[in-house]
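Reply to dn_fold:

You asked what the input looked like. This is it:
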Amino acid sequence: MKAQRSSSNILVQSSNVDLGSVLPDYARAGVMQVASKYFGNLNIAAVHFNREGGAYRCTVNVQMGALPMMSGEADDRNAYAAFRRALEKVAKQLRRAKRELREDKPQRLDKGIFLYEPGEVGRRANRQSDGDALALRHLIEDASGWMPLELEVGSGDGAHRIVAQ
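and this is what came back:
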């Protein structure tokens, strides 16, 4: 997945550190790589370096698409290492957000149901687990057209039955 925006939306700045010419390019390339890996729709990103005693502190803020701002902060004696660690934290947040969006979709219980005969539908429904069986509603085609079916749960023995409405 390629990032839809250019690296001009990535602001690299410092309050009391001379960044040179290589570090900003390195930071932009790293942010673009993470952005293209996870969502590809980079709205804006900001990387800020600060010197605290003998260590560098790096803060990375990234906003992708409609997601909230993801932020990571790290400090290290090397500015490049501080940036990498902060970017890893942001990447972890993006990875978790992507997984949450992907796993939020409900599971399709009727997938492939039209490949079976109407008698096979009832046998397949009987093999479903209790949680899936309660949510199971199918439309199958018979000679007169589409007929809605509903699942009826039997008493404690786990028996399920499909009943035409």
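The chain has two domains: 7-103, 113-164.
Hope that clears it up.
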